[in-house]
Amino acid sequence: MTRRQHFSIILILGLLTTISPFSIDMYLPGFPAIANDLNTSIDQVQLSLTAYLIGIAIGQLLYGPLLDRFGRKLPLYIGLTIYLLASVGCAFTSSIETLILMRFMQALGGCVGLVAAQALVRDLFPVGQIAQVFSLLTLVLAVSPMIAPTVGGYTTVALGWHSIFLILAVITFLIMAGVYYVLPNGKAPDPSISMRPQAVLSNYFTVIKQPQFLTYSLVSGIATSGSFAYISGSPDVFMNLYRVSEQQYGWIFSFLAVSLIAPSQFNRFFLKRFTSEQIIYTTLIYQSVVGLLMVIGTWAGWFGLYGLIGMLFLFMAGQGITGPNSTALSLSPFSRHAGSAAALMGSFRMGFGALVSATVSILHNHTAMPMVSVMALCSIVGLLVLLVGQRLIHYKNQHTDLESTSKVAL
């Protein structure tokens, strides 16, 4: 693989992973306008985000077996086509109920990009390079929340929120062209993999009973879902509580997205001196401390607009480190079931994200407390799951070594 091919593949894989972040981030500045235009409340508009996350969680479970059975590209084309059509449906909706439904369908199609990209990384790169490749994908991924809300804010003001979804449809069409002309096929179709429900569930059970996968996919899902608390709560906190404009909100969101970029790239250097396990453990302790300080400060009224932005920046910096390492550790035990593993891991992440998003909406009280409290809780629970899971992995490895020694002795 030449350097140019390597760059092109990383770029297309990165763009596939940005479909859902763009779909989430780009319409956030339009929340007040959507609520006003559809004669509903911010709480109801937030449910369209929850529906999207639920759609991703369900859709990834469907695409995992499809990617293993039919190869990587055919499910990609089908899913992206569904996403494109649903985006047009979102653009022309006239009720919040239809928007929620179209967002769900949009997620069912677009989530194929997340699963396929992760499975293709496992297909195309050696195991030792996976964490570094995911760090590069995180760099591409981190650009989307810098661009999407800013574009969404100005687009909402200039053209109306409906145009956001038409832009998303055009972007997806261009990504489909890149998949066709640039991306290698990856793992070939495997006719031996059955699509019967019992067989599919058996594949997922094979994946989930692997202690390393279960531990780090849960850690990834729980710990990184703190970002969904921020995404769900920030439009109301900044635009209604602090009275910033749509454009200003876009710039604030873009600034906070910078907190993902530098840490994700430092991760490549950390991996030269530390293991992914050590990095995740340290990062979750850091995020738990920052999260608790953020809750205490918000409750005590220490933070104004800029103080809250600063604390969010410090907290979100940990996400750029936890995500790539936990993803690499979750997928590294698999080759044949990489698609199912990627789907299940992504489903955990988005499932927890949907739960967190709905929780922030339910706890909505016109303050920042629901958002920051849920963010802190995600890191603390993620740390506890990591500690328990690492003990389980250690016990499993010891038990396996003892069995191997006994067989050799016999």
Automatic annotation (TrEMBL):
Subcellular location: Cell membrane
Residues passing through the membrane, by range: 7-24, 44-62, 74-94, 100-121, 133-154, 160-183, 213-231, 251-271, 278-297, 369-389
InterPro entries assigned to the protein according to its UniProt record, in alphabetical order: Efflux_drug-R_Bcr/CmlA, MFS, MFS_dom, MFS_trans_sf
Pfam assignment, any one: MFS_1
Domain of life: Bacteria
CC terms in the record's Gene Ontology section: plasma membrane
Keyword Transmembrane among UniProt keywords: yes
Key words, A-Z: Cell membrane, Membrane, Transmembrane, Transmembrane helix, Transport
UniProt membrane topology term: Multi-pass membrane protein
Domain Major facilitator superfamily (MFS) profile as annotated: residue spans: 9-394
GO-annotated biological processes: xenobiotic detoxification by transmembrane export across the plasma membrane
S-adenosyl-L-methionine listed as a keyword: no
GO molecular function: sodium:proton antiporter activity; xenobiotic transmembrane transporter activity
Entry similarity comment: Belongs to the major facilitator superfamily. Bcr/CmlA family.
UniProt name for this protein: Bcr/CflA family multidrug efflux MFS transporter
